[in-house]
Amino acid sequence: MLPADSRDDAQPAAGHGAHDPLGLYRAADFRIADRPSVDEPGLKQALWYFQQETIALPDPGAPIAQFTPGVTVDGDLHGWIARHHDPDALDLPPLVWVAAPGVLPHAQLSRDATTVVAAGRTMPLRLTQRIALNRSWFNDASAAFFSRREVRLRGRVDAGSFVARTVWPEDFRFERIADASDLPTGVPPATALRALVRAQPDGGARSPFAVSTLWRRRALEPDLAGRTILGLVLNGAQGDDDEAHGGHLALVTGRVAPDGAIGNWLVNNFYALDSESEKGIIAAPVPLDNYLADLNAGQNWYRPSWLLVAVLSRPRAAALAQSGLARVYNQFYRHQLVYEHPTMNCAGITVDALRALGWNIPEQGSTNRPLAWASLPFTAMRERSLAKAQNAFDYLNEDRTRLLPAVAFEQAFASLLALATGYARGNAGGVLGHMLAEDVDALALLRFPQFPSSRAWGTAPAISIREIHDRLPQDRAQLKIIPVPPRPFPSALRDPDLLLAPMRPSEVAACVWAALSIVGIPWVAWRLWRRHRRPAPA
């Protein structure tokens, strides 16, 4: 809320909201740090990335997620869950990226978005600065969209104006679960979910916000206030970036607010750390309203999104997943875990963590492993680049559940449905799988439209490597790619316990082909020469 006075340096008195939770976490467990120093208490590697941002840091007295030095991320999670005895324990992450120190709920923008009214008070409105590499921005269509509804703003007061960082539609709510299922019948669950995602033109980019019931227990009360949720958010393909047809995936936890509000749910977003995002995105746990609606970094300024929600009877599965991901963030900021687009992207990191915690999301196999092996040397010669050939190898070789966000999204749904209905109880996996089998009361799909702006309209994410290639322009010179600057990780922040990264499959393949070129190919050539030189029989 805004303070009563109008001093130029006044900030919303409630910080990130007087009693607003951050996902499953209490607001009281955090303090707001605006442009923090790396000397603040906490994980120094994490703080380094957010020196120009506003974050929520855990209270030193709260239970904060730790990490095991000198082990892999999987090893860390397996060791932690083996000694994890309290099913409802909730460890805090190293930080939450709240992006702005103040929240202005139940606000109304003027038609031209130059003023905002909240709690009976009118203030001049300004928008946060547009990042130079950001190709699109808020325009008249944006103002028309948001002025038709109440909004929740994240931002700060400056010189008497409210400077908005995030504009979130408050009518995007999840209040009740319907009786009837909207899921297509007669097809496998993964295929049915895909049909629902793609039912609207452009994947629903220009369609209204909608909630679909996928499955529910008959005894479930339709009012969801206070219920704990565990979910996965799938972001679609961008319309003007040919490196973003595969979409994006992240894990979500939280509780349904009494009025159905969902903006405070927490999204565990993994993103490349070693380059500067053209949208200003930094990998972090982030409130859902900011994840989708930050004026620069918000995913729904670029594409539509879908949120698969599992409504739980108890909070333990969501608490376990959230605490486990908090440990992964420690290793991610430290660079024990390094983001790689074909082998360790948003889907790979999320799926690996959930599998390590005991949820057996089914593998779907590679796109074409034999082709990956056979084509590596020819791709290297054609592209005149071993690095490009190795990337192509890894894309063809990687398990599609780890590679493609849409595949991970579909398989997670199929697994949840099988666990909840009893079809997979005998193969529930480990701790998290058994919790989900017992606690899932309903499954729903929330569809979020793309916000109107100067940006091209996005669509549903590609479901295969072939579909990604089919969406690219035939003339590769017409590819729309946004070059971004590197962000080298300081060597002084590298801890001495960090393990060497394992060899990528493409590096193994390159070594095998190199050995063949040195030994095998000359040997084959020699045998052919001998055969050619052998005298014909008399």
Description of the structure:
With 538 residues, this protein is an alpha+beta fold. It has three domains: 27-167, no CATH class; 189-363 and 403-453, no CATH class; 365-398 and 498-528, no CATH class. It is 30% helix and 18% strand. Strand 4 and strand 5 (115-118) form a beta hairpin. Helix 2 runs antiparallel to helix 6 and helix 6 (316-334) packs antiparallel against helix 12 (431-439). Mean pLDDT is 91; it is low at 1-16.
Topology record:
Elements lengths: L29 E5 L9 H6 L4 E5 L14 H10 L13 E2 L4 E8 L5 E4 L2 E7 L12 H8 L3 E8 L2 E9 L19 H9 L12 E7 L11 E8 L12 E8 L10 E4 L14 E4 H6 L11 E8 L3 H19 L11 H11 L12 H15 L2 H12 L2 H4 L1 H17 L9 H9 E9 L16 H7 L33 H29 L5
Parallel strand pairs: 6-8
Antiparallel strand pairs: 1-2, 2-3, 4-5, 4-7, 5-6, 7-8, 9-15, 10-11, 10-14, 11-12, 12-13, 14-15
Helix pairs in contact: 2-6, 4-11, 6-12, 8-9, 9-14, 11-12
